[in-house]
C-alpha cells in the first residue's frame, strides 16, 4: 500500500483556502441523516463533537471518565500558542510555522504545520467568545508569555490553568448540543474495537464501565481523539487512566502507526521519590519564563546538598552552574524541551544532581522575585533597596502569574518554592508519534479520523510547549469539520448502519474473548506488577537515551513479558460489573504490544532527532545528530499479527519552504 498524504497543490499559504474552496459539501438537510462517532472528549474530541453537532450531524461521543470535563486536557497548564503578534515582537503565521517545524527537528509535514499556524488565530477568538478567561495586560489586550524554542511571546494563558479553562469552553459548547439532542453522550464507556464494513470504519464496540455491558454502536465515520501513550512507561505525567487502547485497536484493524519512538520527555517534572509512586506531576514549562535552572558548579557542594549538609540558598551565585544559559546563550532557559531534558540528564549523570537520588536540578525564582519587586517599587515610588519590601512586591507578581503551580508544588514536596528553589527532573510527557493520517486527518482506514495527540502529524520529533492545545483545538474546531464533509458527502443516501452485521458479530466476539481469557486466567501477579516491569524496561532502554544493544534487548524482554502476562496475570472480579482491574488489564495488554513496536521503531531509526536520541548518533558536544539523507521520512508501521512482524511504510518529507539545517539554540 502506498501512503498518499493528499497534500493539495499550490503555494503553502494558499493550500488550505484553495482546498476548502473545492471540497465536496453536505447540505444541512442531509447532515441530519449522517451519524458520527467521536471517541474521547478532551480538547480535540470535545471541540470536534461540538462543532460537528453544531453543523447538524448526529454525534455519539464516548469517554471513559465520568464527565468530558475530566479529560486529561485539563492538566495542560502553561498556555496555547497563536500567531496574533499582540506583543509587536515580530511574530507571524510564517514564524509560528517555522518555529514548529524547527522545534520538531524537521520531521513534521510542512503542509499540516502551516495550516495549524494559519488557524491558530481563529482558536483564540473562538475561545474568548466562549468565555475562556485568558490573562490580560494593562491595556485590556490578551497577555502573552514565552515558551521554549521561540524568541517571541505568543503563548496565551489563563494563569496555570489554561487546559482546564479551554476544556470548559469546549465542554460548554458540547453541553449546548447535548441539550439540543445532537450529541448523545456516553460517559464511562471505553472503546475496545473498531468495526470495518466493506473496508470503511462503520462503528465501534464499547464496554460500559459501570455494568460491564458490551455495546455495539454504528456510524458513517469514526473519529478517535484519545490522546497519547506516555503511560507505556508506567510513570509519566499523564493521568493514570490515559491509555492507547482505542488507537491500538484501530492499528490492529489496519490503521498504520507512525513514529511511535518520538516521545517527549518534559524537563520540568517533580522528581521521582520512590517505588511507591504511580504517576508523576508536571510543573508547567511556563515556569521557565522566570525560573532559572542550575546545579552546583562544585561536585563537593552537590554531594553536600544530597547528604543534607547544605541548602541550595547557601550556594553563592558564583558557585552555581546555570548550565542552559551557559550552553545555549541565545535561548537560555527557554530552549526546547528535548534539549533542556538532555542537558539536565547530562548534569545529573555527571554527578551534580541535587536530591537524594541524584536525579534533580533546581528551578530558582529568586532572581525573578527580586527583578519584579524592584520594578514594582519603582512604579510605586518606593524604596527599591528595601530587601523585605522588594521580596514582598516581587512575590506578589510571581504569585499572580504562577500561584496555583507553586501551591501544587508545596503540597506535594512540602517545601516553599518562593524561598527554596524547586527541584525538577525530566519525565515522560507527550507523544509525538501516533496513528498516521493524511491531510484530511484520515487514517489508512477509510472513514476513521484521528485528531490531536492520537495522530502523528504536526509536531515532528519534538513538540514545542503550548502547541498541544493549539493542535487539538485546530483539528476539532477548524480542520475536521471541513475535511470530514468531503468524505461524508458520499454517504447521504447510505441510511443508518445496522449493528447486526457479521462484522459487528466478529468484533464483539473478539472483545469478549480477550475479556474471558483475562478473567479466567489463574495467574499469581497483579496487572500493576506487569505494567511496572514494562515501564522499567521502557525507561531504562527506550527512555531519554537509546542504543542498538538496549533496544534489541528491550524488544526481546517486552515480548517475553507479554507472554508471561497472558499466562500469569491475575484479574479479579467479573465482566458484568464495575471492574477497574479488568480495565487496567485490557489497557496494559495493549501497552505490551505497543512497547515492542516503540522499541522496533527506535532501533530502525539510525539517527538522533528531537525526542529520539540514539547514543550512537550525537555530535562531539552531545547534541542530536540527524541524518536527513536517509531518515527524512515518516515511519508508518502496518500491523501483521505481532509487533516484531510490523511492516514499514515510508512517507518522504519534502521541505519546499524551509531549509533543512542543524538545529541550534546557541
TrEMBL record:
One of its GO terms (biological process) is anaerobic respiration. The active site is at 337 (proton acceptor). GO terms for cellular component: plasma membrane. It catalyses: a quinone + succinate = fumarate + a quinol. Its EC number is 1.3.5.1. Its main location: membrane. It is an enzyme of class 1 (oxidoreductase). Keywords: Cell membrane, Electron transport, FAD, Flavoprotein, Membrane, Oxidoreductase, Transport. Residues 35-469 form the FAD-dependent oxidoreductase 2 FAD-binding domain. One of its GO terms (molecular function) is flavin adenine dinucleotide binding. Its cofactor is FAD. It is found in: Cell membrane. It is a peripheral membrane protein. Residues 531-665 form the Fumarate reductase/succinate dehydrogenase flavoprotein-like C-terminal domain. Coiled coil: none annotated. InterPro entries: FAD-dep_OxRdtase_2_FAD-bd (IPR003953), FAD/NAD-bd_sf (IPR036188), Fum_R/Succ_DH_flav-like_C_sf (IPR037099), Fum_Rdtase/Succ_DH_flav-like_C (IPR015939), SdhA/FrdA/AprA (IPR030664), Succ_DH/Fum_Rdt_flav_su (IPR011280), Succ_DH/fumarate_Rdtase_cat_sf (IPR027477). Belongs to the FAD-dependent oxidoreductase 2 family. FRD/SDH subfamily. This is succinate dehydrogenase. It comes from Myroides pelagicus. The lineage of its organism: Bacteria, Pseudomonadati, Bacteroidota, Flavobacteriia, Flavobacteriales. The gene is sdhA.
Amino acid at each position: 500500500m502506498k501512503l498518499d498524504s493528499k497534500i493539495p497543490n499550490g503555494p503553502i499559504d494558499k493550500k488550505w483556502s484553495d482546498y476548502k474552496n473545492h471540497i465536496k459539501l453536505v447540505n444541512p438537510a442531509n447532515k441530519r441523516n449522517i451519524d458520527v462517532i467521536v471517541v474521547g472528549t478532551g480538547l480535540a474530541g470535545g471541540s470536534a463533537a461540538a462543532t460537528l453537532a453544531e453543523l447538524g450531524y448526529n454525534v455519539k461521543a464516548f469517554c471513559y471518565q465520568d464527565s468530558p470535563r475530566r479529560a486529561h486536557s485539563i492538566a495542560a497548564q502553561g498556555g496555547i500558542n497563536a500567531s496574533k503578534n499582540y506583543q509587536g515582537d515580530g511574530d507571524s503565521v510564517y514564524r509560528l510555522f517555522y518555529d514548529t517545524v524547527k522545534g520538531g527537528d524537521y520531521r513534521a509535514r510542512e503542509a499540516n504545520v502551516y495550516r495549524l499556524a494559519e488557524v491558530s488565530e481563529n482558536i483564540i477568538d473562538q475561545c474568548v467568545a466562549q468565555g475562556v478567561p485568558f490573562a490580560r495586560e494593562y491595556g485590556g489586550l490578551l497577555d502573552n508569555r514565552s515558551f521554549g524554542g521561540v524568541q517571541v511571546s505568543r503563548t496565551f494563558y489563563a494563569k496555570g490553568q489554561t487546559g482546564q479553562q479551554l476544556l470548559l469552553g469546549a465542554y460548554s459548547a458540547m453541553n449546548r448540543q447535548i441539550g439540543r439532542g445532537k450529541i448523545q453522550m456516553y460517559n464511562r464507556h471505553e472503546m475496545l474495537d473498531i468495526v470495518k464494513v466493506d473496508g470503511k470504519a462503520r462503528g465501534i464496540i464499547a464496554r460500559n464501565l459501570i455494568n460491564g455491558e458490551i455495546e455495539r454502536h454504528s456510524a458513517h465515520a469514526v473519529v478517535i481523539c484519545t490522546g497519547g501513550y506516555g503511560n507505556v512507561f508506567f510513570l509519566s505525567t499523564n493521568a493514570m487512566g490515559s491509555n492507547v487502547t482505542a488507537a491500538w485497536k484501530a492499528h490492529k484493524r489496519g490503521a498504520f502507526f507512525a513514529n511511535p519512538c518520538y516521545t517527549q520527555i518534559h524537563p520540568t517534572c517533580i522528581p521521582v521519590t520512590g517505588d511507591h509512586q504511580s504517576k508523576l506531576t508536571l510543573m508547567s514549562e511556563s515556569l521557565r519564563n522566570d525560573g532559572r535552572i542550575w546545579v552546583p558548579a562544585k561536585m563537593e557542594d552537590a554531594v553536600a546538598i544530597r547528604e543534607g549538609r547544605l541548602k541550595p540558598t547557601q550556594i553563592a551565585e558564583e558557585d552555581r552552574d546555570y548550565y542552559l544559559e551557559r550552553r545555549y546563550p541565545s535561548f537560555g532557559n527557554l530552549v526546547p524541551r528535548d534539549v533542556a531534558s538532555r542537558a539536565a540528564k547530562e548534569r545529573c549523570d555527571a554527578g551534580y544532581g541535587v536530591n537524594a537520588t541524584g536525579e534533580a536540578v533546581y528551578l530558582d525564582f529568586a532572581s525573578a522575585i527580586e527583578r519584579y519587586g524592584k520594578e514594582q517599587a519603582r512604579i510605586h515610588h518606593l524604596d527599591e533597596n528595601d530587601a523585605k519590601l522588594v521580596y514582598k512586591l516581587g512575590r506578589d507578581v510571581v504569585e499572580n502569574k504562577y500561584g496555583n503551580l507553586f501551591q501544587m508544588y508545596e503540597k506535594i514536596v512540602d517545601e516553599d518554592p518562593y524561598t527554596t528553589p524547586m527541584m525538577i527532573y525530566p519525565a515522560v510527557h507527550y507523544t509525538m508519534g501516533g496513528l498516521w493520517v493524511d491531510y484530511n486527518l484520515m487514517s489508512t482506514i477509510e472513514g476513521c479520523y484521528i485528531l490531536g495527540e492520537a495522530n502523528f502529524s504536526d509536531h515532528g520529533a519534538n513538540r514545542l510547549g503550548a502547541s498541544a492545545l493549539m493542535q487539538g483545538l485546530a483539528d476539532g474546531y477548524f480542520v475536521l469539520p471541513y475535511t470530514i464533509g468531503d468524505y461524508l458527502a458520499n454517504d447521504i443516501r447510505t441510511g443508518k448502519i445496522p449493528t447486526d452485521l457479521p462484522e459487528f458479530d466478529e468484533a464483539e466476539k473478539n472483545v469478549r474473548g480477550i475479556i474471558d481469557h483475562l478473567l479466567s486466567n489463574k495467574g499469581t501477579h497483579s496487572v500493576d506488577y506487569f505494567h511496572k516491569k514494562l515501564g522499567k524496561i521502557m525507561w531504562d532502554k527506550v527512555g531519554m537515551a537509546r542504543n542498538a544493544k538496549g533496544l534489541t534487548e528491550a524488544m526481546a524482554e517486552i515480548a517475553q513479558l507479554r507472554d508471561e502476562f497472558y499466562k500469569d496475570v491475575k484479574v479479579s472480579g467479573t465482566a458484568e460489573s464495575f471492574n477497574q482491574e479488568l480495565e487496567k488489564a485490557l489497557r496494559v495488554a495493549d501497552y505490551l504490544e505497543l512497547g515492542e513496536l516503540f522499541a522496533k521503531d527506535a532501533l530502525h531509526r539510525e539517527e538522533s532527532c528531537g525526542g529520539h536520541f540514539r547514543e550512537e548518533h550525537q555530535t562531539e558536544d552531545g547534541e542530536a545528530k540527524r541524518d536527513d539523507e536517509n531518515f527524512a521520512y515518516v515511519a508508518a508501521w502496518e500491523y501483521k499479527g505481532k509487533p516484531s512482524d510490523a511492516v514499514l511504510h515510508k512517507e518522504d518529507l519534502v521541505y519546499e519552504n524551509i531549509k533543512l539545517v542543524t538545529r541550534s539554540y546557541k
